Each structure stands twice: as C-alpha cells, then as structure tokens.
Amino acid sequence: MKKxxxxxxVFLLGIPALFAADNRQKEEDxxxxxxxxxxEILNTPENIPRExxxxxxxxxxxxxxxxxxxxxxxxxxxxxxxxxxxxxFSGSWGSPAMYALEGASVGFQLGGEATxxxxxxxxERGVDSLLNSKVKLGADAxxxxxxxxxxxxxxxxxxxxxxxxxxxxxxxxxAGISLEGSTLRPxxxxxxxxxxRRLSARTIIRGPSPTPPEAARNLISNLDAASPHLKA
Length: 232
Known about the structure:
Layout lengths: L1 H41 L7 H4 L4 E9 L9 E8 L13 E6 L11 E8 L2 H9 L2 E2 L6 E3 L10 H4 L4 E7 L2 E4 L6 E4 L1 H8 L5 H6 L10 H10 L6
Parallel strand pairs: 6-7
Antiparallel strand pairs: 1-2, 1-4, 2-3, 3-9, 4-7, 5-9, 7-8
Helix pairs in contact: 1-5, 1-7
C-alpha cells in the first residue's frame, strides 16, 4: 500500500510538468508555422513592398487562422510578434512575443479556408499600443490594408501615416485586408509556456529580452535576410 501511495504521489507531481511541456510544444509549433508562413509570403512574387518592410518596427504573423471560427464567439487565432532590437528598433530582429487575434467583424465570414495574417507595425506609437494591452484595430490603433508588389512603392508615404498595415494570404493569394473592429492582444499564457516563466510582451520586446527559442530561428532568419536594417 505504501508503495502504491508513493507511485501515485510521484505521478501526481509529474502532471504539471507534462502539461507545461505540452503547452510549450504548442507555442513552438506556432512559431514554426509563423516562420513557414513568412518564408512563403516573402517568396511570393507580389508580396510586401520592401520599402515598407524596411520601415516596419515590428511584424505580427498569425498563421493558419480559420475564418469560419470567428463566427462563433470566443474563437481566435494565435501567432507572434517580432520586433527589431535596440531602443529605437534599428537592430536585428529579436525575441518573439506570443499574441492573439480576435475577430468581431462579419468580414471574417468568408468561408472555412485557412488564412495567414501579417501585420506591419510602422511606428513606436503602434508598438506601444500593442505592448500595453488589448488593441482594437481602427479605434485604439489606426490600420490600413497594406499594398503589395513593386507597383505600390510610389505610394508608400501615404501608408506610413497608418500605425498598422494588414495583409492576408488565403488559397495562395496574398493581399492587403482591412481588419477594423478586430483586436490584437498579448498572449500572456503563451509567453509563459514558451519561456518557462511569466514574462510580459513589453519585457520580451523592450528588454531585458530572453534568448529566442530555437523554434523562432526560421522566422527571425527570414526577416533578417529580407530586411536586416531599419531604414528611416
């Protein structure tokens, strides 16, 4: 009987560790998915104009969101935000913070196909808004459907007035999309699962930043290759 009690006690002690490992794996899978989505988008002929990517302070990637899920209250997509390092966001791309996208708009009701969403955060006001709390797009932070391809280069100054530029990719098509009424917020539970301790998105982005997890290598390396330096 004593042996059985000991085994049961040890088993119960191990349950939290098992849950923690499973939750970490889920966040690592999301980072891998975000890296794959970003790589495919950057290799799309009509993709994000390089002039805009070079001026972005941060980028949010939310991979494989099922738009039909937004019809049901409480459903949301989960992804990550990566910012350039340094006080003025001029360095290489840094450690990722996990984020959640919640859709309250009927604009999501476009079918059941999976969609990747990408957000360019163009200025420090937009970054600070996202680091502080849940942000309602179009109300708490200005947002516009981002242009695609080289033909949009001449109009990039007009887009710089927006704090966030949004894009979507579905069925192989990549385009700007308006997501006003939706919200972006830090995923505190996701960050804790990924880094093994309670860290705010602000600490991860602004520092002292934790070491980027291995699962983020693909995403960060693709961003560094595509846009290694911030251009004013």
